[in-house]
């Protein structure tokens, strides 16, 4: 994959880091973004450069701000020369009853989890069309966009909206050979702080374990590659069967939380 490039938002840690490392292992040069997470971002970049021998540039910016997505896209394109892949991973998770959720929290979810991916898709797809790049765009959503839980109206609703946006943009961009898809992670253990919780909860998942950032990274590499060249407008769950019919709820009846 010599010469391939990708932008991964929120690539400093967690799922974004897993995706960035997997893309680099497949030969991509990377741009990753973060907000107030410089130490982790540069650790990820050094691992990509020193262990995987790929370029990785780091950009800091608050994608909640209206002008930041376009700025990030321009800087990534200028630095890497072009973009073959965009991964919209950056996001915030807030669970709260919608009846008493503060407007500030609602706006954070809307701006970071929906508006920013949409603006980045606009900017990057315009670049791909102008340069004749038959690229791939991947949005990281959530199984919570498919199944209702208490206290999840806004976060789950925003993820459902991004899934719907993805399908329509896939239709818009198909004539240019640009594919647009989603990955919907389930319960992904991104650090060791809640290892006991994830170990116990993993026993309830049909595949009997929580997911890892590496699981999402492998799926992302495949879905953005030529091996998946006939797939667009689709959401692939990477959840170990978490929300299949018959998945047992917790004692409180709340599913996973």
Give the SSE map.
Layout: E1 5-8, H1 14-25, E2 29-34, H2 38-51, E3 56-60, H3 68-80, E4 85-88, H4 103-131, E5 136-140, H5 153-173, E6 179-185, H6 195-202, H7 213-223, E7 235-238
Parallel strand pairs: 1-2, 1-4, 2-3, 4-5, 5-6, 6-7
Helix pairs in contact: 1-2, 1-7, 3-4, 4-5
What does this structure look like?
The protein is an alpha/beta fold and 257 residues long. It has one domain: 3-Layer(aba) Sandwich (Rossmann fold), CATH 3.40.50. The protein is built from seven helices and seven strands, in the order E-H-E-H-E-H-E-H-E-H-E-H-H-E. The protein has helices spanning 14-25, 38-51, 68-80, 103-131, 153-173, 195-202, 213-223, and strands at 5-8, 29-34, 56-60, 85-88, 136-140, 179-185, 235-238. The chain has a seven-stranded parallel β-sheet, with helices on both faces. Strand 5 (136-140), helix 5 and strand 6 form a beta-alpha-beta unit. It is globular, with a radius of gyration of 18 Å. It starts with a strand and ends in a 19-residue tail after the last strand. The model has no long low-confidence stretch (mean pLDDT 95).
């Amino acid at each position: 994959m010599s010469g391939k490039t990708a932008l991964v938002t929120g690539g400093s840690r967690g799922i974004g880091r897993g995706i960035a490392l997997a893309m680099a292992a497949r030969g991509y040069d990377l741009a990753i973004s973060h907000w107030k997470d410089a130490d982790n971002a540069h650790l990820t970049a050094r691992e990509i450069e020193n262990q995987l021998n790929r370029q990785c540039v780091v950009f800091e910016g608050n994608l909640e701000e209206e002008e930041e997505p376009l700025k990030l896209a321009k800087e990534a394109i200028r630095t890497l020369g072009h973009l073959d892949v965009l991964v919209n991973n950056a996001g915030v998770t807030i669970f709260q009853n919608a009846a008493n959720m503060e407007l500030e929290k609602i706006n954070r979810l809307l701006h970071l989890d929906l508006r920013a991916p949409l603006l980045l898709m606009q900017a990057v797809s315009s670049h791909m069309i102008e340069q004749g790049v038959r690229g791939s765009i991947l949005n990281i959503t959530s199984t919570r966009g498919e199944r209702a839980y208490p206290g999840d109206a806004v976060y789950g609703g925003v993820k459902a909206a991004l899934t719907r946006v993805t399908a329509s943009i896939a239709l818009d961009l198909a004539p240019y050979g640009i594919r647009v898809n989603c990955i919907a992670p389930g319960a992904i253990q991104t650090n060791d702080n809640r290892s006991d919780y994830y170990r116990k909860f993993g026993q309830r998942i049909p595949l009997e374990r929580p997911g890892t950032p590496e699981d999402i990274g492998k799926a992302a590499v495949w879905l953005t590659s030529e091996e998946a060249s006939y797939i667009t407008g689709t959401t692939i769950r990477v959840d170990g069967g978490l929300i299949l019919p018959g998945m047992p709820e917790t004692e409180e009846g709340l599913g996973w939380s």
